[in-house]
Each structure stands twice: as C-alpha cells, then as structure tokens.
Amino acid sequence: MSLEVRSGGVCELCGSSEGLSAFEVAPSDASDEQSVYICSTCKSQIENPDTLDESHFNCLNDSMWSETPAVAVLSYRLLGALGRQDLVDMMYMEDDIKAWADAQSIGGGDDALVYKDANGVTLAAGDTVVITKDLDVKGTGFVAKRGTAVRNIGLVPNDAEHIEGRVNGVKIHILTKYLKKS
Fold it and tell me: Which of 51, 60, 119, 168 has the greatest CB tally within 10 Å of its CB?
C-alpha cells in the first residue's frame, strides 16, 4: 500500500493536505512501512528542531495512537523533543517498535543531556527518586519533606539540573542535586 493511500492524502501527523511528501523515520530501510506522509510544515520543523512549535504539534495527541508503527515512532520522538513526558508515558509500543523509537531522537546527537542525582547516578525518565533535603515549593505553601519519594519523574528539556515530578499531587521542578535515585 502506498503512503498516499495509507494516509488518505493528508499529513499523518497533523492532517494537513498542503505540501505532502514522504519522510523516512530513521534508521530505516527506505520502505513505506518505515516512512510517514507529512506536510511541509511538519517536515521543516522536524528537520530544524530549534523551531519546534508545540501548538502546531498538539496534533500529536491523536497521531501518537496511530496503528502505523512509523507514525507512532515519529510521534514518540517529537513528544520527547517537546518535553511532553506525560504523553510519552501514556504510549504503549511493542518492544521492537520501542527500540526503534529509542534508537534516535529529534535533533538527536552526541550532545544529549545527562541527568545525575546528588551521588552522580544517572537518572532517566520514569525513575523514582527520593528528596534528600526539605525543600520549600514556591507558590504552593508546602514543603517537600526529606525522604519523600517522587515516582515516574520527567526530564526537563535543555536543563540537566532539573527534573519534574509530582509531590503532594502538584507537578514541580526539582534540582537534581537534592535527589537520590532509589
């Protein structure tokens, strides 16, 4: 089945019908199964990750559920680049598709940030950490107590010194130097 037929003649990410072309989801073997039919707006933003417009990519809320693996992989990578760990965490992919999604990132390179806790242990999205010092949480009126577990953390894009997580039901940013991986 050709990409145009599979997509119904619209961008498989945002649904636009303007400036459509095939986009290979690397690493790929250049087959239609590993390509996505996308519009010129989506393509230009993917190729220039510094220009990612989160409001344009609100469409990923729908495309992330695509049954087409290449569309799901590209949605996963874009959500990660936009720092939408909450949506990434909701996605389910078979192990081989997840490995493909993790094989590369949007704007990926060798300059990827490394998040480390107070002991120098590398942190990853989804980890559980423990707060090592009582922290006043600005704007909330409560203190995040030492010893509090923060589960399923998210990594703050472009800032390896902060993670995000929920404490007392409130999503907050926490300095990694006050955390210990558990």
Answer: 60
Q: Are residues 48 and 135 in the same domain?
A: no
Q: Supply the DSSP string of 136-158, one letter for each residue.
A: EETTTTEEE-TT-EE-S-EEPTT
H helix intervals, the chain? 3-7, 40-47, 60-63, 69-81, 85-90, 95-102
Q: How many residues does the chain have?
A: 182
pLDDT tens, position by position, 128-175 = 999 999 999 988 889 999 999 999 998 887 788 999 999 998 999 999
- Residue-range definition of the domain harbouring residue 155: 115-181
The two three-digit tokens of residue 41, written as one number: 């707006």
Amino acid making up residue 92: Y
Q: What is the pLDDT of residue 30?
A: 59
9 and 89 inside one domain: yes
- Output the pTM of the full model: 0.59
Q: Which of 82, 54, 80, 63 is nearest to 23 (CA)?
A: 63
